[in-house]
């Protein structure tokens, strides 16, 4: 039986303070933006795709993506983006939503399929030598619990994910970490070399 592609959300709602501010997804990697590279990898695996970002949505208009704002004020971090993703997917009638970080352009082309092998009532997180908490498949049914956790002050993705029994899928054998994320100008230079 062929499993339907999950909807996916690119998490780009952070403040990018270590990069000097702005939208990391719009930084150039080679001749294209990080968002271009991410969409190239994500589009064959997931549909539809949306972007979680705060501020004026018009700056992403050329991509033609739904832009989902955090529903929790004051930039509480990626958990708020995951909640926005769950709420959007619930509106689509989807049981799960895939999230990827907007600064992680090298994730595997079989990410959704491999995380989907463990999908069920619990989140499924991508793991290499460490867990990558923003790269995951999230059951939409948990959005009420996540909203309550955010309301009570929970901010760490792993703390909440573990509290609801998150599973992990290990990705091994790549020449470099497929979930390498770009936080600093030095990281961007490294990514240019990987490219």
UniProtKB/TrEMBL annotation:
CDD domains membership: MobA
Top-level enzyme category: transferase
GO cellular component, one term: cytoplasm
Keyword Transferase on entry: yes
Swiss-Prot/TrEMBL catalytic activity: Mo-molybdopterin + GTP + H(+) = Mo-molybdopterin guanine dinucleotide + diphosphate
Source domain of life: Bacteria
Binding site for Mg(2+): 103
Domain MobA-like NTP transferase: 8-158
Keywords: Cytoplasm, GTP-binding, Magnesium, Metal-binding, Molybdenum cofactor biosynthesis, Nucleotide-binding, Nucleotidyltransferase, Transferase
SUPFAM superfamilies linked to this entry: Nucleotide-diphospho-sugar transferases (SSF53448)
Cofactor: Mg(2+)
One Pfam family recorded for the sequence: NTP_transf_3
Gene Ontology biological process terms from the UniProt entry: bis(molybdopterin guanine dinucleotide)molybdenum biosynthetic process
Subcellular location: Cytoplasm
Family per similarity comment: Belongs to the MobA family.
Subunit structure of this chain's protein: Monomer.
Physiological role: Transfers a GMP moiety from GTP to Mo-molybdopterin (Mo-MPT) cofactor (Moco or molybdenum cofactor) to form Mo-molybdopterin guanine dinucleotide (Mo-MGD) cofactor.
NCBIfam families for the chain: molyb_mobA
Protein's UniProt name: Molybdenum cofactor guanylyltransferase
Organism: Roseinatronobacter ekhonensis
Gene name per UniProt: mobA_1
């Amino acid at each position: 039986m062929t499993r339907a592609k999950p909807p996916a959300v690119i998490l780009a709602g952070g403040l990018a303070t270590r990069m000097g501010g702005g939208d990391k997804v719009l930084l150039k990697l080679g001749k294209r933006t990080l968002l271009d590279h991410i969409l190239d990898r994500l589009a064959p695996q997931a549909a539809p795709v949306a972007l979680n970002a705060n501020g004026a949505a018009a700056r992403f208009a050329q991509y033609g993506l739904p832009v989902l704002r955090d529903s929790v004020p004051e930039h509480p971090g990626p958990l708020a983006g995951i909640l926005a993703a769950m709420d959007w997917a619930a509106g689509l009638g989807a049981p799960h939503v895939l999230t990827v970080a907007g600064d992680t352009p090298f994730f595997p082309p079989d990410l959704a399929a491999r995380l989907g092998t463990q999908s069920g009532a619990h989140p499924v997180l991508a793991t290499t030598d460490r867990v990558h908490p923003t790269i995951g498949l999230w059951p939409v049914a948990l959005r009420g619990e996540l909203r309550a956790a955010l309301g009570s002050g929970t901010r760490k993705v792993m703390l909440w994910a573990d509290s609801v029994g998150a599973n992990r899928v290990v990705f091994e054998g790549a020449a470099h970490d497929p979930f390498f994320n770009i936080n600093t100008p030095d990281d961007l230079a490294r990514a240019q070399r990987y490219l």
